[in-house]
Design goal:
Elements lengths: L1 E6 L2 E6 H31 L4 H5 L13 H7 L1 E5 L5 E6 L12 H32 L5 H13 L2 H15 L5 H8 L5 H12 L3 H8 L4 H12 L1 H17 L2 H6 L6 H13 L4 H29 E2 L2 E2 L2
Antiparallel strand pairs: 1-2, 3-4, 5-6
Helix pairs in contact: 1-14, 3-14, 4-7, 4-8, 4-11, 4-13, 9-10, 11-14, 13-14
Amino acid sequence: MKNRYKIGKQKIIRSTPQKIAMGIVFALFLIYSVTLVFPFVWMFVNSFKSPAEFFGGNIWGFPKTLRIANYSEIFVGLPVGGADGAVIETTVVGKLFGATHKYSIFEMFIVSIALTLACTMSNIFFSATSSYVVAKYRFFGRQFIYSLAIFLMIVPIAGTLPEQYALMRWLGLEDSFFGVFLMFSAGFGMNFFLMYGFFKNISTTYAEAARVDGAGHIMVFFKIMLPLALPVIVSLSVIYAIGIWNDYTTPSIYMKSMPPLAYGLFLIRETLTGKGAYTQTFAAMMIALVPILAVFVAFSNTIMENTIAGGLKG
């Protein structure tokens, strides 16, 4: 027995064993997707419960009453409840971190947005310029630059972290926004290799025609090459921005007095969970998740259309 599947104008005929195999694969992927989504759904549901309900045994069920105040309290006052639901004390998120860390979650949002936008734009720009030059121009040291980029990716972070920290202290950038911005703005890394492969395969016909008309190297790059690479740049920008937004390690080392949201959530979690305010902690995590999730959903089609099999679609 055979089954026919029509995709566009092309008909694909699959036998019964093939259909069974496809069903098994689909079931496995469905189970895997559920394991990925379930923690977020569980956290979202529990973010609307009161501490008394959460600790009263209703961990897996839906909230009996929606407690929207968990979200508003993250930005203003945080009533911290104990296991019996009684209010132990009232505090403000901006004062959770003592004399050194006085940033509220709203200010952490601002820091995260500024850091993500600044680092993403600078890294993509420098990655595009460096990869374009190495891919399209022949000059002395070109192969050395390419080999150096590979070497920097091979060396593990644990092997360079002590020297990196010592350098940041020597430069006076140990606890500053600008220091982290410089580290994330390098023109090497994975973005360099992906753009290098893209520019390597781009035809030089339009560039040569522009040079005949008198265009210089800078105009060719900005007027011709960058527009051709725009879909790729958008895809890499979204992926890189997600990485910056979720990065916890770098800010925890170099931005302790100016915590972005990823590091700030750790501080909030350490403070609130120790006092029993798990539901408020879940609300804070959901607030941090929504912006980057919205960006990914908005650009998911662009990412899928321009990245295939670990490479780039030109």
